[in-house]
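ok so i was messing around last nite and threw this chain in just to see what happens. nothing serious, just curious
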Amino acid sequence: MAPLCKLGTTTSWFVEDYRRCSMELLVDLGNLMDLPQDSQTLGSSLSPTEKGRLQRAFCRFETFHCLFVAPVDEDNQSGRDRDYFRQARRYLRANLLPDDVEELACIRDYLVRRLWGVLQAIEEHAVRTTSEDPIRKLGHERKPHDWFSNLAKLNQEEYIEYLISLGLGFLRDVLESEDLRRAELVISNSVARYNYISHAVDDDSEKTCDYISYEYDDGSFDGEGEYGVEALDYFSSGLLWANYNKIPSDYGRGPLKGLRDWGYVFWGKARLQASGVLDCE
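result:
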């Protein structure tokens, strides 16, 4: 029972953090594109449906973490990797609809952004301090490579992937900890490994887009088409809007943000309308 209670409190923490980060990105998007926004609705509390979608996605993410833990320091590593990758893909395709996979992809992208911020903060701290600073000493003494070396920097993307695979409890500890504790957690667990959820989600991305285009090709945002109004009860307004308007997944890349960056599959129609994105041409 205790692990379930811990998962519940951890999931609630991440749901609120995800809402805050995503709304900040939507506000930035509105400012960059000069969109009319209703700040009161945009910043309102999550609806039961929005909260449920996010809770489901984070719980699925943690389930995936428990099922496919990256094997480290084992013989025949590449063979195990390939086997785990195949298992991960089979799990996604057998148990989840592609739109559910898209929710997982949004969670993965959010965690990557949050950890990039953590790594950047550790580096900026080291730049501002002397060689005797405990965080700098911790990084320089790391084996086999100095954490602040150019080689380590080249591996940062894989470090982040491995950190993500350690689960939500660990990630919350990283995000909530003070400077030294946070650096200890990150540097001591900086392993150059990809995790299987990223492999599986990336591998499924083209299939997901094909599925959405096929299934909703004749459907409208107001619920017409093959699924009718029932689609509005299950599929998110953001997913229906993006498909009906043929919005590419990299919409707004560059100075703006792509669909996954602000969690388009999680928000209700009222919040999306308040953000102004539904009126974009």
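not much to say yet. The longest helix spans residues 2-33.
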